[in-house]
Design brief:
alpha/beta; transposase activity; Transposase IS116/IS110/IS902 family protein; 13 helices; six-stranded mixed β-sheet; two-stranded antiparallel ribbon
Amino acid sequence: MGGSRVYVGVDVHKNFSFVCAMKENGEIILEKKVRTEELEKFLENIPGNRTIILEPTTTAINLARKLRKKNEVLLSHPYKTKLIAESKKKTDRVDAKVLADLARTNFLPTAYLPPDEIMELREIIRERIRLKKLSTSTKNRIHSILAKNGIKYDGNLFNSEGREFLNSLNNEWIDRYLRILSSIENEIKEIDKEIRQKCLENEETVLLTTIPGIGYFSALLIYAEIGDIKRFPNSKKLCSYAGLVPSTRQSGNKTITGRITKEGNKLLRWVLVQCAFVAIRKDERFRQFYERIKQRKGSQKAIVATARKLLTVVYAVLRDKKPYISYTPTSYYGEECTPVTNWA
């Protein structure tokens, strides 16, 4: 692969995609509609030193992983790219031509494209989440059948006693869903073994499990969603990435803070909130922090604040490659070298 730099914007869709190739001087040398299944081969045949730009959809990310072996590949940041396109290109549509031109003029805001090993961990985590959702929906179907037939049961339907009760009903549909549920649960057990093994093989995830509330699954998820901790200069940037920072607005000369932005990585934010609920039961320092916020702002804001605090601890543990030390007055975790009483 030789020659001058060529910027190739790709607008990826399910069946067909659109490609625009542009020279460094802005001259368009190619615009074409291509079948998505033929896209990889088509792009590899474009001459020159290729910089390929894609928006981060599932299909595009899978394509990017293949293309980056022989090309420079950039993922655009969807929200920021749209804002820049509106201001500089006077369009709200981010198409292949806009992607190529923004990259050519160094105005393209980029998103993180993780290495393959991180992508593989993300796939494992997402499969586990998918299986759990299937399990929940199957259980809901069984509850629905019972309600439809006016059958009540006081207790857990899905422990050993509950399943004995369900089997005793001799209901064809319930039996069918129980078989489906059993199959799903076996798959979950297998993938949980894989998650545990992956977690124990990795220095960073082992360190994360020293933090209260974080187990094998959540450690692997957090690590996979963050990637290289060095890409965040401080914990505030990481909290922003997770959407765990307050929104702000100007009113006259005042800056007013509001609810969390809920922008950023939804999966990371979700797991941190779940971990925070466990942390306040397991660790006195987290419990005190939660209770202090709860008294002033209520339980919902307190658990979100605890999730944010948990993420600052995650940042410190990964940055310093040191385990969390539970409830020691001189601990520096959370980035402040302060006693526990001032841990805020």
